[in-house]
User: What shape does this take?
Amino acid sequence: MATSKANGKKKTTVKKASKSKKKTAPKRAKKATSSAKPTKPAKSQRKTAKITDADKQKMIEEAAYYIAQQRNFSAGNAMDDWLAAEEQVNKLL
Assistant: This one.
C-alpha cells in the first residue's frame, strides 16, 4: 500500500493488479469461396474395393463352415450350407 497526502489528509491507495492480456493470433480474413457447396459423388461414381473371385470364394467357404458348425457338422447338408453361405456373402457385397 502506498500513502499520499492530499488536502492535509492521509489517503491510502491500493495498487490494482494489472490485468495481463493473453496474446492471440491475429484474425485472418476468410478466403473467397464459391457459393456452391461441394457435393458427394453419386453412389455409382464412388470408388469401391474390388473383390476378386478368389476372395469371394474364400468368404463363401468360411461362411459355409460356420453354418455347418452351428448344426454340429451333421451329414447330408453340405449343399444347403454352401447355398446359404453364398446368399449371405452376396448380401454383404
User: Anything to note?
Assistant: The first strand starts at residue 2 and ends at 6.
